[in-house]
Amino acid sequence: MESILYEVKRVVVGQDRFLERVLVALLAEGHLLVEGVPGLAKTLTVKTLARTVGGSFKRIQFTPDLVPADLVGTRIFNQKSGEFGTSLGPVFANLLLADEINRAPAKVQSALLEVMQEHQVTIAGETHRVPAPFVVMATQNPIETEGTYPLPEAQVDRFMMKVLVDYPSEEEEFVIAERVTGAPVSVATVADTAQLQALQTQCRAVYVDPSLMQYAVKLVSATRRPGKYGLPELEKYLTYGASPRATIGLIEGAKALALLRGRPYALPEDMVDLVPDVLRHRLVPSYEALAEGLSSDDLVQRVMKKIAVPDKPLAHPQATATA
What is the CATH number of domain 205-322? Predict the structure, then answer.
């Protein structure tokens, strides 16, 4: 993973937090939604990552005239044989980049529902598995509303994390300009899909203390029933809370982050770091919250302040032995 990160950093300047989240999504087999204004290297990062991991990479530019068959594939009549054959769509790749996903209507976005959850596509009653590992990284632009469509809640919930990408610092922007206007950098392939799958298996073996799992459950539950956790004032601000996928995302994300940080066990700080990214897109603020200028991030911060982080759990005896 260090080699992958090194190669990506040869092209992408800064964005350390974003890159860390991309690697967490890869290890935890989760999907990533990336939001940021144009020109912040969202697409470049995913394309560069695909080159460093020697798997198949496909990019779909979402536009208002797309139809679901453009994503998953369709049945085509072969005049020579007189039979229908299946033409598979671009979702059949290890790393799928859904560029500007909010530019296509909901019926097209919904075509990704099955493949993101089940890792398979059903075309005319036939089921086709997508290659493993399979990760969807979608980008969206927050500043334009003309010609964009909000993502359906069921679709958004399938993304493990939503990462907000911010502008670079002046020093970073200077290096960006230097690199873009200089000689192009060639990126080497430093890993293959078999190695990535082995890392994903290793990630699942990372130990998470029950108290840390309980912390994740309480956090997510507090977004659904804030009154039960001493936050009655939040009830009027939340229309819907997070689903159980958020709890799973927090635990799997903490495992991946612990592995990236060189530990066979997760610590509270691993999970705390990921809470805003895992929860922000799953909360549906009410009209009252919007009227008072409260965003999902503000509500998440209030919940985090109320739910106590568990004491640093000791490493599992087996984990200590292997370490």
Answer: 1.10.8.80
